[in-house]
Write a structure and sequence with these properties.
Length: 305
């Protein structure tokens, strides 16, 4: 993923999930702590977790931890899940059912599939098949997918937010599935990249998304911010310095207690990410979003709870 991600999880339930701070657990690195040590770090600091794939070592380490988790499904698995209910059942049997004492809240099926991508044909059917497999197993886990903000045709001013023409049919179909299952929609946006053009975007981006959702029947959807962060490498990018990153995280934790001008109220929020990831790219900034170094040393003095 490029520099800064803000992942919004949008649910059609009529109330906010319990407000808390979570942290994304990215593993594109070759020098990270063992999974069991990572879980200890999460437990010590509080907060929820987002995994980007159903890593078995991490799921094993999460057993009995009381950490609420979003489990991702990688893009390469979409076609198989979409074209075979048996494959979806196997996915659930392998990655979900063996972990009854892991608090899995959502399954994120694919990430940032563009309307022009051939995989776009498989997103909806993959969600449906996995949802059917989850339902057949009597599990209470919602299934969704993640989009990025390139699908917005207009994002400023926020009240004029709308989807692009090329994205409308794709996203409308996905939203219809999610509304029918009372499941969330996840969306990635990049405030750090936009920061190089103008300064204050957090509320504007959220309110533009709210406006876009209103135009497609999603006026009552609730937003949960499940990924937001700032890079901290002095040499790797504009404004990507430790002081800026620390200030961003501290202010974000405080700010989300109040919501946005369009939708006041607390926002459950996940920080991006737990560790620096030395194998990410292509931009150097992507390696430096961690709240902790790979040696588990904190970069900032933050309170997640």
């Amino acid at each position: 993923m490029a520099a800064l991600l803000l992942l919004l999880l949008i649910t059609s339930q009529g109330k906010l999930v319990a407000q808390s701070i979570g942290v994304n657990y990215g593993t594109i690195a070759d020098n990270l702590p063992r999974a069991i040590d990572v879980i200890t770090l999460y437990t010590t600091n509080g907060g929820k977790m987002r995994m980007f794939d159903p890593n078995q070592a991490t799921l094993q380490a999460l057993k009995g931890s009381n950490i609420v988790v979003i489990v991702g499904v990688v893009n390469n698995d979409l076609q198989g899940l979409a074209t075979s209910l048996a494959t979806a059942n196997t996915c659930v049997q392998t990655n979900i059912i063996p972990y009854p004492d892991v608090k899995i809240s959502y399954i994120a099926v694919g990430n940032e599939i563009k309307p022009s991508d051939p995989l776009v044909l498989y997103v909806g059917p993959a969600i449906q098949n996995l949802n059917n497999a989850i339902t057949a197993s009597n599990l209470q886990i919602k299934v969704s997918t993640a989009i990025d903000m390139s699908l917005l045709g207009n994002s400023y001013p926020p009240f004029a937010g709308s989807l692009s023409d090329s994205a409308s049919s794709y996203i409308n179909a996905i939203i219809s599935i999610l509304v029918s299952t009372n499941a969330p929609l996840l969306a990635n946006v990049y405030p750090y990249l936009a920061y190089t053009r103008y300064q204050n975007l957090f509320d504007a981006i959220l309110d533009a998304l709210y406006s876009a959702l209103e135009k497609i029947g999603g006026a009552n959807l609730t937003v949960i911010v499940t990924e937001s962060g700032w890079p901290s490498d002095e040499d790797s990018g504009v404004a990507a310095i430790v002081d800026n990153a620390g200030t961003y995280y501290k202010n974000l934790i405080s700010h989300v207690k109040n919501g946005t001008p369009k939708k006041p109220g607390p926002l459950e929020t996940y920080l991006f990410a737990m560790f620096d990831e030395d194998k990410k790219g292509p931009a150097e900034t992507e390696k430096h979003f961690g709240l902790f170094s790979p040696t588990k040393e904190p970069k900032y003095q933050l309170t997640f709870t």
